[in-house]
Amino acid sequence: xxxxxxxxxxxxxxxxxxxxYLPLFFTAILFIYINRNTEERxxxxxxxxxxxxxxxxxxxxxxxxxxxxxxxxxxxxxxFPIIIxxxxxxxxxxxxxxxxxxxxxxxxxxxxxxxxxxxLIYNSETLxxxxxxxxxxxxxxxxxxxxxGDNMDGEDVRIIIPNEFVEYIRQFDYRTKLLYxxxxxxxxxxxxxxxxxxxxxSSGNPNIDILAECARKGYCQYIVLSSxxxxxxxxxxxxxxxxxxxxxxxxxxxxxxxxxx
Amino acid sequence: MVNQIxxxxxxxxxxxxxxxxxxxxxxxxxxxxxxxxxxxxxICMFATFQIFSIPMIFMNMSLDSLMYIWCGTLVxxxxxxxxxxxxxxxxxxxxxxxxxxxxRSTLFVFLCICIQIFIFAYTQHLEGDDSFYLxxxxxxxxxxxxxxxxxYTGDPLASxxxxxxxxxxxxxxxxxxxxxxxxxxxxxxxxxxxILIPMSYMTLYLIARHLFPNRTKAVSLFMFxxxxxxxxxxxxxxxxxxxxxxRIWQGKAVIANILLPFxxxxxxxxxxxEGSKSEWILLFLTTLASCMVSSMGVILIPFFIGCFGVxxxxxKKKIRILLYTIISLAPCIIYxxxxxxxx
Lengths: 261, 343
Known about the structure:
Helix content of chain B: over 70%
Largest sheet of chain A: 5 strands, mixed
Shape of chain A: elongated
Number of strands of chain B: 0
Largest sheet of chain B: none
Order of helices and strands of chain A: HHHHHHHEHHEHHHEHEEH
Helix content of chain A: 55-70%
Oligomer: heterodimer
Low-confidence stretches of chain B: none
Low-confidence stretches of chain A: none
């Protein structure tokens, strides 16, 4: 039971985080309950109270957690019509004023309250200038084009790619297979070869011999590494040669594998 | 480019309007129902997609076959709508009515929403979850298959991903890619926000018109608050505003910002007008659509509608409402059962 309560509490903290929208919402619900008529209570207050009771009661919360999972239990807070309720109460509060001057004064006050209760969505943390029409990192597109330019027969290829591109390359290019995907980044495990390759790619200075061995065992024809890693000679001794460059990254091609083919 | 614009206009403009018109009969409460017609049309498209896609995915059929059957059905519905009830005349009248009541304050809010959409269009937000959703869409689009390959690595899948296969929204994005002759990533990152963000605001606008009937200024003020609350809604990465303005192409964002508010709208309508048959049908389609866009829909929508249904049935002492609510939630119960069976 204490575990369920702690999941509920952490879901609230995760959802509300640095903001005050949820406390504002519950204040708004109280405002409607005190000031408005039955119809509005039926619409805004009672369903939200039933919902809150079901989230707070360990038995019902346990059932919901079983269905949607503890890791995404915070989505349960989407069930509260926060934006609708706050907008409704905001409008009602502004309309309490008698004169135009009072309306503007209250509106300004509420604007300041909202801005301090939340955080502006438009910032450099969330949005950046798009690098291309796909809105994906340029390197992902350049790497794909290099590889498919080399692989003119159109066969599927498998590659080892820096972790920063693992989540993006297959959004752009369905023909490029990866030795390991996002599951590895999330720590969900994988085969011995995948784990070994991931470990090397996660280190700042990968052991090229191990990486080349993983590539061979995992049927990867290409390895992409940051150009800062000076590994040309080491890769050459493992029969990998430079195919080309994509931004700050170098694409290496398995010569031995090609010879075998 | 011209072909793409015509396709876009047809599949995401004409078709939803006409199929929506088939569902929304003229009624007194929606004198200007252009927005409702469009929303109903898109929801009908989602619902029909769910009906066809699930069996076809399990029968290992190709993406193209699903596209032909689904699009054929939509074209048929559009043709029926054209001949059914002077739809074009009605849509024209609804359009006039909708924009007639716009005043200066409404236009200001409209401008703010346009700015939000254009900021979205001209910026980029990288999202790790797209690895699955858009990976699935791109793989389906490129290989003409559905859920046959792991979107993370490209390896063949031994079995269907139980959690996601019943919510084939990525497959819909792949089909839109085919119809609009675009890469699915462009459809998701650039085209869909132009459709889905306005849909969210249309829903909230309709809610405002029900909350403040015949009070245009109050409606504008309500919408102004909505815009401001969304703009400052990045208090956490989990807020509905974050999902609306940063990642609306994902199914769960559609649930949070369109389908849950749309269900709220129907609850208002049902509470105020006791609910006509067409409203219950539309609520049924909404629950079906919610199962299609996200696996979360199977639990969130019944929970949301259930809270309203129970509260209303208790307050009004009307068991009939509770019964209709349960019937309208049937898709969630069925898909929830299938999920339990295949997982």
